[in-house]
Design goal:
Layout: H1 2-12, H2 19-34, H3 38-50, H4 58-70, H5 74-86, H6 94-105, H7 110-123, H8 127-139, H9 143-155, H10 163-174, H11 179-191, H12 199-211, H13 215-227, H14 235-247, H15 251-263, H16 271-283, H17 287-299, H18 305-318, H19 323-329
Helix pairs in contact: 2-3, 3-4, 4-5, 5-6, 6-7, 7-8, 8-9, 9-10, 10-11, 11-12, 12-13, 13-14, 14-15, 15-16, 16-17, 17-18, 18-19
Length: 340
């Protein structure tokens, strides 16, 4: 207990206010660790692992984690599992990772339970085993495990599809602030997946996820403001949320902003701004943005370069099978080829 108290004090004061103080603390933990104090061994491993009060030394960290793990310290066992799982300071070895995870899981270590499940899930060889371990972590309250249970139930991955159960797991995770789950509850209400359609509820949950920075939620929230679904039409709010999603690289949001600025829908018409957003989406391979961008360049004869830009984007869209782009590139008696 005295070493636990000391570690808390150490972390609060930053542990490096003076070299002498840091050395004293590290030495105190080392002496206790060498005498077999399992908590001191684990704390000393953490200090070396993260460079707290001393230089980082992954090998010394591993040595002390192993000492603590051998005495049954669940956190140390789990940490060693992660090292072997991801090849951190040791060669990657899934079997050794599982061995350490299992030892921690025997003590109901929640992260170890989840890690075992994810190993089986990632190999795609034993979904029932994956679900067993993920479910145990979810039942103990791990939000990421609850989210994964929801996703597997949503798509019937290794388990029979059940949208109602999926919704229940999303809700459990969302109640803990799991951001993606906030979005998927909104989506469930929006499209009636495991729950009755309720646009007002969809709007509310999208808003929660959007406020946490979830890009797809920002896109959907913008669309609801634009169309007046679950809330009144508000073009200003729609543009605000499209911008936030677009700045995170969401193609549909970039395209929507292009349309808004091109048409002056809820904002002053601004063709240069429209071009900016169409270009952002076009560069990500959005065929419709490529086509529209080409038409804008083709219509603007003020710069000779514009026809070349137009042909470039028609070609990009046509390569994806965009029918109107293909037609624009087809010479006819009334419409010669754009660039000779």
């Amino acid at each position: 207990m005295k070493f636990l108290i000391l570690s808390i004090v150490l972390l609060l004061v930053g542990c490096a206010s003076s070299d002498t103080g840091s050395d004293y603390v590290i030495e105190s933990y080392r002496k206790a660790a060498e005498q077999g104090d399992v908590d001191a061994q684990y704390k000393l491993a953490r200090f070396y692992d993260f460079g707290i009060g001393t230089l980082k030394d992954k090998q010394k960290a591993i040595e002390w984690y192993q000492s603590a793990a051998a005495q049954g310290h669940a956190d140390a066992q789990y940490t060693l599992g992660t090292f072997y799982d991801y090849g951190l300071g040791v060669p990657e070895n899934r079997q050794k990772a599982l061995n350490w995870y299992y030892q921690a899981a025997e003590q109901e270590h929640i992260d170890a339970l989840y890690a075992i499940g994810m190993i089986f899930h990632s190999t795609k060889q034993n979904y029932p085993e994956a679900i067993y371990w993920i479910r145990r972590a979810a039942d103990k309250g791990l939000d990421e495990a609850q989210y994964d249970m929801a996703r597997m139930l949503t798509f019937g991955v290794g388990i029979e599809e059940d949208r109602q159960q999926a919704f229940a797991w999303y809700m459990k995770a969302a109640e803990q602030g799991h951001v993606a789950s906030l979005f998927y509850i909104g989506s469930a209400y929006d499209f009636g997946q495991g729950v009755a359609v309720n646009k007002q509820n969809a709007f509310m949950w999208y808003q929660k996820a959007a406020n946490e920075g979830y890009a797809k939620a920002q896109l959907y929230l913008a669309s609801m403001y634009e169309q007046g679904q679950g809330t009144k039409i508000d073009k200003v709010q729609a543009i605000k949320w499209y911008l936030r999603a677009a700045e995170q690289g969401v193609v549909d949001a970039q395209y929507s902003l292009g349309v808004i600025f091109e048409l002056g829908d809820g904002v002053a018409q601004n063709i240069p701004e429209a071009i900016t957003w169409y270009t952002a989406a076009a560069k990500q391979g959005d065929a419709e943005s490529q086509y529209v961008l080409a038409t804008i360049y083709e219509a603007d004869k003020s710069d000779p370069q514009n026809l070349q830009n137009a042909e470039k984007w028609y070609l990009e869209a046509a390569a994806q099978g965009h029918q109107k782009a293909l037609e624009a590139l087809t010479p006819s008696a009334s419409k010669p080829r754009l660039v000779h």
